[in-house]
Amino acid sequence: MKKLLAIIISVCLFLAAVPMAAFANAPVATGIVMELTGAPVTVYPGQTFSVSVNISENSGIYAWRSDLTFNSEYFDFVSASASGNFVGNESIQSQNSPNFSYNKTASNKIRMLWDNKGTDNFTANGTVATITFKAKETVPTNTYNFGLTFIDGTRIITENPYATDITIANSKGLSVNVEQIAVSSVEILEKDVVENYYIGDSLKINSISIKVTYNNGDEETITTGYETSYDFSTAGTKTVTVNYGGKSDTFSVTVASPSITLSDNAETVIVGEKHTVTVTTVPADAQVSWVSSKTSVATVDNGVITAVAEGEATITASFIKNGITYSADCVITVIPVSIVSVEIDEIDYENTYFIDDELVINSISLKVTYNNEEVEYVEEGYTTNYDFSTAGEKQVKISYEGFDNFVTATVKTPAVTLNKTSAVIIEGKTETLTIDTVPAGVQVTWESDDEDIITVANGVITAKTVGTATVTVSFEYNGTIYSAECEITVKRLLGDIDDSGEVDISDLALMKLYLVGAMELTEKQLDVANVNRSESVNVTDLAQLKLYLAGAITNFEDLI
Question: How far is the C-alpha of 495 from the C-alpha of 179, rounded, in Å?
Fold first, then answer.
């Protein structure tokens, strides 16, 4: 009888869905709890997961019927299976059906039936069934409820009609959070990258291996599909961020600033000369361009500057790196070729002169040094400056193009000197004066200031009559007259009566003849016979003449 009743109840629950209350008395409330457990807290699109149907506080149950509701738009039912003493089946077929059966009676509902198959009330607790679902790929992020609804149940009793309907104290569903599959972390495993850059460079990754961990626990290693972000606009240690799926990892590289420097920033170059400016660039292989701000002053070719004309030009060296121009300047001042020094290399000149002489340079060679280090020897084009107006050691300035050199010269005073400054000449006699001249050999002029007394020619003085006159010898040198004088006294030779030019015995004989009256004497003879310069010629004069001839006296004038 009990077995027949169970069969009838099972058939009614599953096929006809006729409430069990139709076979029993009023339902009896129990403390049994049925609930869904075991689903993961978070589910991801495409993931298969299971929920467990659990019984607790079971005081004895023979059969039950319950619905598990779910959102079939986003979840697919996969399978169901019994646990413990239960064996799953997809539908109730006959009285020989297993203890547990289920039927997907609607698109969003699974109906479950447990039938103890004629055994007594079952009091075990635990999982009675496991239902497996799969989240569809299109399921959006949200919280989804899986409900458990108790429909009806029965317990075996001893009284007629042998069974009673029951109500369960509580049936509980569960919630599942759906999250989209996303990257939870990124880790750079290996990389082959360029580690040194310049401002504006682009990142260069030869190869990279990235470990990607997803929020569902999956992992994969990727080498493509990532994105990078970095800022190489300034120099320094820079962070490169590797992004994938919203997560990132980083590594560091070094960014340097390109630069350019010149060996000179200012230079003076002589017209026609070349000057080389060396350039240093970072990076070293930069292609440098050169330009002159004024090619009429200076041109440049790969750092070699050619001075064209006097003036100033700016030489600019530059290169472009990543669209940025880096440059350095050098200011070139071009000056004309000019003399820096003049020296006397050789000179042949007269170094002794007389007042107001002209400088005499027989030959000269001037060493002219220019600011471009060239040397020239010139023999003309120079000027001289000197002052020979006075005697002494003099400086002679030799000038060429504003540069002065000096030599010395000795300047002497021209002069003429006589061997005598005064002389006594016997009337009618001659005497020759000698001279020295400075300079030697000049043409001199002789002159007597009284030619009635004396005459002079080439230094030979002729005494014409008794008296005094001056002889002057002179010459002109550079417009100046230089002279010397000699005072000449013309006298008669006392005692020289016969005018022989000497006093001798003949003169004594003539004086005796005159004193005895044997002859007459001329006025001149009487003058020279009067040796003592008395008023007349007498025996006293004769006596003195004898003494003169005897050597007792030497000069008649001492007796006057």
Answer: 177
Residue 204 corresponds to which tokens in the numbers above?
Answer: 């260069």
> What is the DSSP secondary structure assignment for residue 12, as one 8-state letter?
I
Enter the tokens of residue 178: 């759906």
How many angstroms from the chain centroid is the CA of residue 460?
93
Cβ pair 459, 437 in contact under 8 A = no
In this predicted model, what pLDDT tens digit does every residue of 35-55 receive, in sequence order?
Answer: 999 999 999 999 999 999 999
Say if residues 212 and 181 touch (Cβ distance below 8 Å): no
Cβ atoms within 10 A of the Cβ of 212, count? 19
Q: What digits encode the pLDDT tens for the residues 61-92? A: 888 899 999 999 999 999 988 775 444 333 33
Pull the structure tokens for residue 256.
């340097």
Distance, CA of 244 to CA of 289 (rounded, Å): 43
User: How high is the pLDDT of residue 171?
Assistant: 92
**Which tens digits make up the pLDDT trace of 3-12?**
434 433 343 4
Residues 403/374, Cβ–Cβ less than 8 Å: no
Contact 125, 56 (CB under 8 A): yes
Average pLDDT of the chain is 89
Question: Quick one: tokens of 15?
Answer: 């096929």
The residue assigned the tokens 């069990």 is 20
Q: Pseudo-torsion of CA 504, 506, 512, 516, nearest 10°?
A: -160
Cβ atoms 531, 510 nearer than 8 A: no
Angle (nearest 5°) at CA 544 between 538 and 547: 150
